């Protein structure tokens, strides 16, 4: 089913010059990219986005990392977009992510911190929630 999902190029993908190869993978998977823009996130926005991990010991490092520079955000649309994008991303832990996935190929763990390059919504409900959170009411998806 054609659907939309939300993605973030985290600072590690931008600083590591991985944005272009990641975009190529997105197009090659048949997904369309829209509403692409650079944003500087506030700690409050990151806390809302990552509400499910806000109480974890590793959260402060993630929050600092996500607000330190621009993020690129976008909406991906296409067949089964949520799972298609999660499949391209690979597992959360780059050391467990398969080769050929974005996190498996570009991600790494350094001093216990996970650098996994990209975010993707994990369900259509969360895609809707995250798109509203990051873009406001003026952008809606089906
Ligand atoms: P996801 O990004 O694959 O959806 P989530 O469980 O939603 O994974 O966690 C959000 C983010 O929090 C991850 O992408 C990663 O940056 C970080 N994270 C999750 N679990 C851990 C962990 O056990 N150690 C360090 N960082 C983690
Ligand atoms: Mg998640």
What would you call the structural class? alpha+beta
State the distance separating the first and last CA atoms: 11 Å
Strand order of the largest sheet: 2-3-1-6
Number of strands: 6
Helix content: 40-55%
Structural write-up:
This protein is α+β, with helices and mostly antiparallel strands and 142 residues long. It contains 7 helices and 6 strands; from the N terminus they run βααβααβααβββα. The protein has helices at 11-15, 19-28, 43-49, 59-67, 81-89, 102-106, 124-135, and strands spanning 2-9, 32-39, 71-79, 108-110, 113-115, 118-120. The strands form 2 sheets. Strands 2-3-1-6 form a 4-stranded antiparallel β-sheet, sandwiched between helices. It has a two-stranded antiparallel ribbon with strand order 4-5. The longest helix has 12 residues, at 124-135. It is globular and about 40 Å long. The termini are close together. Inosine-5'-diphosphate binds next to loops. Inosine-5'-diphosphate is lined by residues 50, 53, 58, 62, 92, 114, 116, 119, 122.
Question: Summary?
Answer:
The protein is of the alpha+beta class and 142 residues long. The chain contains seven helices and six strands. The longest helix is centred in the C-terminal third of the chain and has 12 residues, at 124-135.
Describe the SSE topology.
Layout: E1 2-9, H1 11-15, H2 19-28, E2 32-39, H3 43-49, H4 59-67, E3 71-79, H5 81-89, H6 102-106, E4 108-110, E5 113-115, E6 118-120, H7 124-135
Antiparallel strand pairs: 1-3, 1-6, 2-3, 4-5
This protein binds inosine-5'-diphosphate and magnesium ion (MG).
């Amino acid at each position: 089913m054609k659907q939309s999902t939300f993605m973030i190029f985290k600072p590690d993908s931008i600083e590591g010059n991985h944005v272009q190869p990641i975009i190529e993978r997105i197009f090659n998977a048949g997904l369309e990219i829209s509403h692409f823009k650079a944003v500087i996130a506030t700690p409050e926005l990151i806390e809302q986005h990552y509400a499910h991990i806000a109480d974890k010991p590793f959260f402060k490092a993630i929050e600092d990392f996500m607000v330190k520079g621009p993020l690129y955000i976008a909406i991906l649309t296409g067949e089964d977009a949520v799972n298609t994008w999660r499949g391209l991303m690979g597992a959360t832990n780059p050391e467990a992510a398969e080769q050929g996935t974005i996190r498996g190929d570009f991600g790494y763990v350094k001093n216990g911190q996970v650098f996994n390059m990209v975010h993707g919504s994990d369900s259509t409900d969360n895609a809707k929630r995250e798109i509203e959170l990051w873009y406001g009411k003026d952008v809606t998806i089906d």
